[in-house]
Amino acid sequence: MTDPSTNQMADRSELISFRIGAQEFCVDIMSVREIRGWAPATPLPQSPGFIRGVINLRGAVLPIVDLAARLGLPVTEPTARHVIIVARIGTQVVGLLVDAVCDILTVTKDTLQPTPDVACDMTKAFVKGLLAIDGRMISLISLNDVLPDAELEAA
Question: In whole angstroms, what is the distance from residue 86 CA to residue 89 CA?
């Protein structure tokens, strides 16, 4: 026998929203492991420009991705106010450097609008859709598309 609340939960998603510059983005909260303050990263030679380097997270090496640079926005100059969202992408755990975490959103499938056709291919590769909530336009990011397997291995 199926539980009716299970179907209802499948229609609802929890997302965590964050800011990069003046724009707001969100990702599925189930991929987020923790949120921590900025810590200087040790640069890695020959890594892609959006990889800030690595930090030591409780004995594990954690690659730090400048999400702004990866999305084609200006490179982030981190301060003590910036945060790292520790997220699981596939089998890899990475840190995503963002300006600030904003909110936890509970949305339904019908809340998500498709990415407009006028968006460039790079935008469409990362942005799964748009949410219009409380007068804010929030882009839903697909973490699997932000770091393809080859770049995860390089990190």
Answer: 10
CA-CA-CA-CA torsion sign (95, 100, 106, 108): negative
DSSP string covering 99-118, please?
A: SEEEEEEEEEGGGEEPPPTT
- Alpha-carbon distance of 124 to 141, in angstroms, equals 10
The residue type at 34: E
d(CA 114, CA 18): 20
**With contact defined as beta carbons under 8 Å apart, do 112 and 131 qualify?**
yes
pTM: 0.84
Q: What are the residues whose beta carbons fall under 8 Å from the beta carbon of 26, sequence distance 6 or more? A: 15, 16, 17, 18, 105, 131, 138, 139, 140, 141
Q: Which two tokens stand for residue 131?
A: 């949410």
Residue type for position 24:
E
Q: What is the pLDDT of residues 10-35, one digit of tens each?
A: 578 899 999 999 999 999 999 999 99
Residue 20: other Cβ atoms inside 10 A: 23
Q: In angstroms, rounded to a whole number, what is the distance separating the alpha carbons of residues 101 and 107?
A: 17
